[in-house]
Amino acid sequence: MIRAAFTKIKSKINTYIPPQQAQINVEDYNIVKEGSAEILFSKKETVFYNPVQQFNRDLSVTCIKAWDNLYGPRSNNKTQKKIQHMDKRRKLNNSSAKNARSDNDSYLNILEALSATGLRAIRYANEIPHIKEIVANDLLPAAVESINRNAQYNNVEDKVTGNLDDANVLMYRNKAQGTKYHVIDLDPYGTVTPFVDAALQSIEEDGLMLVTCTDLSVLAGNGYPEKCFALYGGVNLVSHEATHESALRLVINLLNQSAAKYKKVVEPLLCLSIDFYVRVFVKVRTSPIEVKQLQSNTMVTYHCSQCGSLENQHLGRMLEREGKNGKKYIKYAVAQGPPVDTKCKFCQGTYHVAGPMYAGPLHNKKFIEEVLRINNDEHIDEIYGTRKRIEGMLTLAQNELDDAPFYFSPNKISSIIKLQVPPLKKVVAGLGSLGYDCSLTHAKPSSLKTNAPWEAVWYVLSKCDDTNKDISKMNPNTAGYKILSTIDEWLPKTPNEKNSNLDITKLTFEPNEQSEHLEKLRKLKIVRYQENPTKNWGPKARPNLS
Ligand SMILES: C[S@@+](CC[C@H](N)C(=O)[O-])C[C@H]1O[C@@H](n2cnc3c(N)ncnc32)[C@H](O)[C@@H]1O
Ligand SMILES: [Zn+2]
């Protein structure tokens, strides 16, 4: 099949015109179908494509639709009036074909700053309503040729504009020209760090930023704390099982620190640790008042290198005060600390310090509800091959505790104190009986988030095993022995003792609301992993261009 090629690049954005192609000879390409798009790949593979990232793209389509429904430019009357007014003015000022096309129903401008084949942009054009224009940008001429060829092949060339530029140059030029985007998608190789500042300045009020980082060896690994700090301004939970959540918190902090310079804040809508990368969806708005909360919303975490117990230290405090006129106001104060001694009170291990990183909730539950609704009501398995996985992972995220950073696995705790691994529901029933909440986490199977103090975690886990272990037989140098043999020193025997509200007399392992909720979730048979990963799947290297 031969098709005439369309290689026009809209010159307003960049004057580069790639070599004219008279026609597309389909036999020269491999065709890959994903979602609603069919993409022509050069048989030489000169442009990046990773099929395993379909989950990322399926999810992104769904999230952009949810964001548009809840917060997009037409989501409330005030903005609607403003846009109608602007549309009217634009029509009066300019009667070009392009503007004539910008009817009331197509209003979203999207930038895919690092586009490769154009697959993502083409899917957005096909699958998301109200698209006015998607600029699909890449640094490589071969990529931009691929974007334009594929836009033509998929009949969306009136919406998808290929653009050849360094992403930062494009965004800063846009800023200078006053062009902004409602949605900016940053899906780089490795870290997103170099693109954050420009993107935050090129986004509309309440705009959606979609950010991927695939450099998890840095962001969640054990070997590069110095690199993590240099790139993200903080260190991950090195050698700790919850390091993937610290990766998310570091990315949010990076975004918020950059946004604060422009009096903007970043509100996390959905932050996921997925396979070999993290993907965060955030809403960006100008709000000098909320910028003031950044200090208190940022924390460092002291985590014991032996037993993994941890304490979070917020870097500022917000205190409610009353002025002379009786009016309440917030006083922003420095933090008090440290919250821990020089050695871990449970096992005498050494503390390591992680962060600074974001301390607040990772998800907006209303947003997740809308994403799940769209996933269920509007999408079908034939187009959205990862629909079941979206449902599984987002259901877990929706049920995560908001106010309990990080998680632990009863497996790990039991191996430290050398007791039998208890069923999750028993641990949760125990913590629930003491008045604490628990949830699962999307980031790691069989792990728990809880707002219980670590005293309660160690105590409940030690009581889950009723085999009456003789601790004198344990190696006295192990963390487990030290924890169990010093229990009288750190465990409050009555409520209010040792500055704790823990009341151990209430402990039972009878099923309760907490454990029943957890069991219901676990029965959902949640799909956590990609359905058909390819051989040796993971982050793909850049294509070899030589
Ligand atoms: C991981 S791929 C993008 C994949 C694509 N978003 C998708 O869903 O298939 C990263 C792309 O960014 C491009 N790139 C790298 N640095 C860039 C820069 N500074 N400006 C623009 N594009 C860049 C690369 O050429 C590559 O095509
Ligand atoms: Zn310890």
From TrEMBL:
Enzyme Commission number(s): 2.1.1.216
Catalytic reactions of this protein: guanosine(26) in tRNA + 2 S-adenosyl-L-methionine = N(2)-dimethylguanosine(26) in tRNA + 2 S-adenosyl-L-homocysteine + 2 H(+)
GO CC annotations on file: mitochondrion; nuclear inner membrane
Keyword Transcription: no
MF annotations from Gene Ontology: RNA folding chaperone; tRNA (guanine(26)-N2)-dimethyltransferase activity; tRNA (guanine(26)-N2/guanine(27)-N2)-dimethyltransferase activity; tRNA binding
Keywords: Methyltransferase, RNA-binding, S-adenosyl-L-methionine, Transferase, tRNA processing, tRNA-binding
Compositional bias of kind Basic residues: 79-92
Protein name: tRNA (guanine(26)-N(2))-dimethyltransferase
Source organism: Naumovozyma castellii
